Amino acid sequence: MAKSITILIGTITGTAELVAEDVAPVLEAAGYQVEILDMDGLTPDILCDNDLVLICTSTYGQGDVPDNAMALYEALDVHQPDLSGLHYGIIGLGDSTYADTYNQGGVRFDNLLRELGAQRVGDVMRHNASSDELPEEAGVAWARQWVELLAK
Ligand SMILES: Cc1cc2nc3c(=O)[nH]c(=O)nc-3n(C[C@H](O)[C@H](O)[C@H](O)COP(=O)(O)O)c2cc1C
User: Fold this and answer.
1) Angle, alpha carbons 5-70-122 (nearest 5°)
2) With DSSP H G I counted as helix, E B as strand and the rest as coil, what are the percentages for the chain, rounded to 5?
3) Does 50 sit in the ligand 1 pocket, CB within 6 Å?
4) What is the three-class DSSP state of 16?
5) What is the CATH number of the domain that holds 94?
6) Test site for ligand 1: of 15, 95, 102, 125, most ligand atoms within 8 A of the Cβ
């Protein structure tokens, strides 16, 4: 499997970026080269040109992806590229006070990438902003398990 991982950030208030910055060293320690990119301005090529990505995104609106991820999400949905060569992981951020749409940003990406043929490695991580757990700590713990799954 690939030795480089691109982390794609969907965020409004920056939490997903903080999580990615703490997750990156875990991936690097496992031997991966890591690039962190804000989804703003990206096209579906980013998923066609890489074979391993980590989506790190929060949730807004009616269970939507954040504004900076919207154009990429919609372009993927419209153009339907073949992503059968792609493996991915999902770190989702949300808040359970939004009971009906809890963590749907990450779930939306998961559903779309699977529909386009990509293969998820590991469970979708769901962080709850109303819990006592820090999102960075949850991300690091999840990433330690994720790299073990990638190594299989
Ligand atoms: C206006 C607003 C709307 C939100 N809508 C949802 C939602 O529908 N579902 C959910 O699970 N979380 C929702 N959240 C919670 C955020 O996704 C959560 O706080 C997340 O950690 C923010 O990450 P970010 O700083 O990377 O954007 C909302 C937060 C705000 C401020």
Assistant:
1) 40
2) 40, 25, 35
3) no
4) helix
5) 3.40.50.360
6) 95
The pLDDT tens digits along the chain (152 residues) read 459 999 999 999 999 999 999 999 999 999 999 999 999 999 999 999 999 999 999 999 999 999 999 999 999 999 999 999 999 999 999 999 999 999 999 999 999 999 999 999 999 999 999 999 999 999 999 999 999 999 99
**Mutation probe of ligand 1 site: the residue of 12, 58, 127 with most atoms within 8 A of C-beta:** 58
Any ligand 1 atom below 6 A from CB of 98: yes
Q: Which amino acid is at 142?
A: W
Q: Is the CB of 66 under 6 A from ligand 1?
A: yes
As for how many domains the chain has, the answer is: 1
Q: Is the CB of 130 under 6 A from ligand 1?
A: no
Rounded Cα distance, 16 and 93, in Å? 7
Helix, coil or strand: residue 82: coil
Number of residues that this document lists for the chain: 152
Please identify which residue in the block is written with the tokens 């154009």.
71
- Domain limits for position 31: 4-151
Beta carbons of 103 and 135 less than 8 angstroms apart? no
